[in-house]
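I am hoping you can look over what I have pasted underneath with an eye to the fold:
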Amino acid sequence: MNTLPIALPRLLAVLATALLVIPSFAQGQTSAPATSPAASASQTAATGQPNPAEMMKQMIELAKLNDNHKLLANLAGTWSYKVKFWMNPDPKASPSESSGTSVTKATMGGRYFVTDVTGMMKMPGADGKMKDVPFKGMSLDAYDNAKQKFTSSWIDNMGTGIMASEGTYDPATKTFTYNAEMEVIPGMKQKVQEMIKIVDKDHHTFEYYEDRGGQEAKTMEINYTRKK
């Protein structure tokens, strides 16, 4: 998720407020005593906003790494993967199978993780027959301290949209669960759920579920193995 459009206005708002407050405070020193803590608290309650110093302190705290970022760091590395893909939601149907390589790297000091995926996918051609098609994908994953949720965005060469999802982590099952909504075709929105289960430090699985007419259908399964 690109946080620049969100973080930049917040930072500019803090700085702009500080520029307004500091000069008036400095000028007021020659004619009036400093504002008392009680008056400052009253002003904060009246405006519903903390003062600039408190806002900056909070933003600094929210920028710090924690154990949730360490969880994402466990998925960094180079992985080989094998995919099973079901075009037909019938669980008895035979899946299409393919493989590839996934590389995940930390950026911004470990606050975000960028993944590049390269492989082949079996897709139906214009004649209806399955054929191998080059596949490229990319994700940006993070833990948003303000939202207290894991966030992820995904793009690939099979479309032009960006899928944004939010999720949680269950330490008991070592599973990330993300939820999102897609609109591949205009006017046709579809809810999806992704589950990433950590098997051990060298293996994890990915399962993808689609809401098809109120029925949840598993349409993809990926098994990852760390390359050594």
The chain is about 25% helix and 50% strand.
